[in-house]
Sequence to fold (337 residues):
Amino acid sequence: MDKYMSINYDTLLENTKLGYDLYLKTYVKGIPRYVLFYRGDESFGNDRREELIKQNIKKLFISTNDVQKYFNYQEKNLQSIIGDKNKSSEEKSQTVYHVAKYLAMDLANDPRSGTHLRRVTKWVDNTINYIFDDENAFSSLVKVTSHDYYTYTHCVNLSVLGLLFGKYLFLNPYELKCFGTGLLLHDIGKVEIPLTIINKPGKLTKEEFEIVKGHPVAGQNLLEDKNIEEGALRIVIEHHENFDGTGYPNRIGGMDIHLFGRIARIIDVYDAVTTRRSYAGAKRPFAALMEMKEHMITCFDLELLKEFISFLGPHDPRRKRRKEESIYDVGIDKVIS
Fold:
């Protein structure tokens, strides 16, 4: 039996061939039926959109067999979608995020693919342009980041938050490209770690943790000779290095850690703590920052952590903050000093 997934037709571009069929959902004696509205080999013109508006239809449906085609279309047309003045920031951000999510999944399945790596850099370029061109990109992108921790969603979350934070820190476009690429690839080495360990719901044994600690080097090895910029590679190898020199794999510290590695360490922990994991629930932003301050403060570059807290500002990326939970009421220095 065929299954269907709803999509918002506002994410579709006029006068393009989608490559997949669109359906309308109707009911016959209370039973849902899906009626063909558009054939994928036709041009999706303004007349089709006007027909939907006239009938006040908000959702279209695609076969679940065509989901990959749908996201391939989104990725192929991402530049045009984010440049469309008629689309809202929310619609653009949804597209940016979901394109990256499916790209990260493809990358996990074939991490050595040069094609996938070129797709990564193209996505980063488009997202940088979006962040600079749309003043609402911050709030709308942060809203769509996932609450559930999977390696691929975690990588996308880091790249989205990192590009926004990098803009806040006045990184130039080239630096942002390296930074965003490195964040999206930072955990690529985990494809070499058994899933039984990656998805283990309880605490890892010492032996299991030693295996996990091998993922930065594994990631670096996977990306060798792939024409990845040095700044991006430094994130892959250094995102678990601590400022006090107690991290891994090379136990370097302080300014010996690349700027991108020091920033990545902060965002990596923040995203992990504020998303639901197999062994722990999600913490609120304030609680996450307090945990970082109370139990991990020596892991981070203090000045960068202060900047990260200022960057978060009044925005709450995960859920509404309680009134009594405001890092801005107690002051930045009190939170992290």
In short: The chain has 17 helices and six strands. The longest strand covers residues 31-38.
